[in-house]
Each structure stands twice: as C-alpha cells, then as structure tokens.
User: Fold these one by one.
Assistant:
Number 1:
Amino acid sequence: VQLVESGGGLVQPGGSLRLSCAASGSIFRINAMGWYRQAPGKQRELVAVAVSNGGSNYADSVKGRFTISRDNAKNTVYMQMNSLKPEDTAVYYCNARLVASIISQARDYWGQGTQVTVSS
C-alpha cells in the first residue's frame, strides 16, 4: 500500500492550499483517511480525519478554516486549507487506516509528508 501526497508549498498568511492524498496497492477496505502534521520541535498531531460513514473530525485549531473530503471511488482524501496562519506551518502527513485483504486486520499507513509553510 502506498500513500502519495501532493499540494504543499509556500503561501502567505490568509492564503489557501489544497492537499491531496491517493492510496494505491492492495486495499480491501479503507476505514478512515486523514491528515496529521508535525512542526519543528513538536509532536505529530491530528489535523482532520474523514471516516467511512461520512463523518469527520477536526482539531480545534483548524475548525472553520480546513475542510476534509474523500473520494471513495479514487481512494483519495483532500484537505482544503483556508485562512492559513504562520502556526499552520508544518510537515503534513496523510494517514489511512485500512484493511489490505479479507484476511488482514486494519492498520495505519502513512504518506511521506508534504511541507506547508505559511509566511510573508
């Protein structure tokens, strides 16, 4: 299973970015897909997650600014990030909790990370 991310970059405060993450390989069922981030000197934290029943959860710090969505047919998750702040600067990692085959148990898979820098 591979998770391939795209969409990071440099943006000014107040700007927007859209992250994408596509899962490929042996996939039987995806239970949830989401985004975590890790800033220098800090622990990795959950940003947003979209679960298979259509629900989603967000970190308090991004509520109202970030929107997560999934395209189940494409095994892809997106995150629209608006009103970006310097404190959003971090490496953003895609996460998928999925079952690889009918005899497997669910486990977490991670993307390689994409840098988001918010600076003037």
Number 2:
Amino acid sequence: QVRLVESGGGLVQAGGSLRLSCAASGRPSSTYVMAWFRQAPGKERESVAVLWWSGGNTNYADSVKGRFTISRDNAKNTLYLQMNSLKPEDTAVYYCALRDVRDSEYKYWGQGTQVTVSS
C-alpha cells in the first residue's frame, strides 16, 4: 500500500515562497507518475505540476509556469513543489498524488496541506 504524506504548507504574503514536500512509502511499481494538485474553496481540483519519476520529465499548469518547480529526491522517495512569487490566487489545499505510468487516474493521494497567500 502506498502512503503519501505532505508537509510544508502555511501562511505567506504575496510575493513570498514556500516549499511543499510529499514523502512516499510503499512504491507500487518502478515506473510511476507523481503530481501536485490544488483545490481552492468553491473550485474544482486542478493539476498544478506533474513529474514522471523515472525520466524526470515535468509538466506545469500555465498559471504556475515560471513560478513553481516540481522535483524529486530518489534517495528519500520525496516529491517537492517549490513555489515562488506566490499570489493570493494560489491559495488552496495542495495534494500530492501518485499513479502507475500505465494508469490514467491517480490512485493514491495525500491528506493535503493548506497554502494561504495574503495580499
């Protein structure tokens, strides 16, 4: 069973930075994809950044390109999201998720961590 635990959320002023972490245990396979999603109040959950673990390829939502960076530490089985130049519209609960590269939907989710950006 895969378990994902996020940390690093908090309150920050606009223009500030935060780094989220997602520690993964019990990897389901050797080829998988991890991602960060977010959900703001009254809005649908959206994908923020995606990383293909074996090759390191990444993909970002247009709204965060140039400001957010997704990365990994293989030795620690940890996924990161470095968030710079934060805006009030980045306020949301951020979730990390994992799926096998052959699956279309994410099977494993963390509990979420709140990010609040004040103006």
Number 3:
Amino acid sequence: QVQLVESGGGLVQAGGSLRLSCATSTTIYAFIAMGWYRQAPGKQRELVATIYSTGGTNYGDSVKGRVTISRHTVNNTVSLQMNNLKPEDTAVYYCNARRSVVLDTTNYWGQGTQVTVSS
C-alpha cells in the first residue's frame, strides 16, 4: 500500500514563505504525476500544483508565480515552495500521487498538513 507523508505546514505571516514536503513509501518513478491540493473550510478541494513524470508542471491560477513544485528522485519526495503567502492560502494541503497501470488509474492521498497564514 502506498503511503504519502506530508510535512512542513505551520503558521506564517502574510508575505512569508513555507516549504512543504511529501515523502512516498515507494519509488517516485511509480507515479505518472504527483502534486498538491488544498482545501479550505467550506470550500472544495482545489489544485495547487502538479508535476508529471516527464518533468512538466501545472499550477492553479490562484498560486501561479508564487509557488514552485519539485520532485526529488534521490529520496522519493516532492516539495512545494510557497512564497508571498496570503491569508487566502490558509487551508489543509494534501499530497497526491497518481499511478496508472494499463487502463486503471489510482490516486493516493496523504493525511494533509495545515497551513495558516495570518494577516
């Protein structure tokens, strides 16, 4: 069973930075994509950033220019560097990994890490 463990969340003032990390229990090469989603109270879960096995990336409109996703094959982790944080970035951030075998796609999720940005 694949496990994803997030770390790096916390409380930060507006304009500050945080770096989230997601460690996988298996090789990162097992996934066609890994990424971060977030969910604020009363809102739907939304995409923050995705990085594909090809190295390509995709960012949510609300965070473009402020976050960078990277994958690290040496230690099987994916990180999310977040800069110029805003109070509206406050949410639980979830790591996601997507594996595709033939025609079957499976999404795996971490437990989430809280990010709180104070104004």
Number 4:
Amino acid sequence: QVQLVQSGGGLVQAGGSLRLSCAASGRTSSSLAMGWFRQAPGREREFVAANSGGSTYYADSVKGRFTISRDNVQNTVFLQMNSLQPVDTAVYYCGASPGVWDYYGMDYWGKGTLVTVSL
C-alpha cells in the first residue's frame, strides 16, 4: 500500500502561480511512478503530468506552464503551476503506481486539493 498526502492549492488570479506537493509513504521506492491528474466540475478526470522511470510526461494543455519534479529522498512529488488560467480550475489529485500506469489513472490516490483560478 502507498499513502499519499497532498498540500498546496487554493485561490489565485489568472496569470499567477501555485505549487502542489504530494508526499508518499508506505511501500515507496524510486521506481514508483507519481503524477498529477485533475477533475474540473462536470468533466472527467484528466492527466496533467507524471514522473516515471526518470522521465517526465505532460498533457499538451499544460506543457510550458507546469513543471513536475521529485525528491526521492523525501518521497515527494511537486507540481509547479505557472501562468494559471481559469480553465485550470479543478480538483487536483496526486497519483502513484508501483507498476504500469497510463494516462487514465494510477493505483493509489491522494484526497485531492482544489485549485481555483479567477479572472
């Protein structure tokens, strides 16, 4: 089992920045894939970014604005979000998978944190 504890998020004006954190505990390792997904009101959950096997992956909608990074000592993954826009408003979920994952989801989830971007 892997437990994920998220922090960060909140309200920001368009063009602003926020940083999300997600600390993993339990059966963690440097090979654990970790990433971020989001779900906007009335929409399905969508992939945002992931760090897996030393590589990073991004949704086209956030490339160049969001950066995922990882501290393997602290078993923590971060999502730096810059140039935020109202369309980025969503509940952001941290995910982790010890094995295969895909853009539809991961095996373990954090509780989610709300990011609201105002005009």
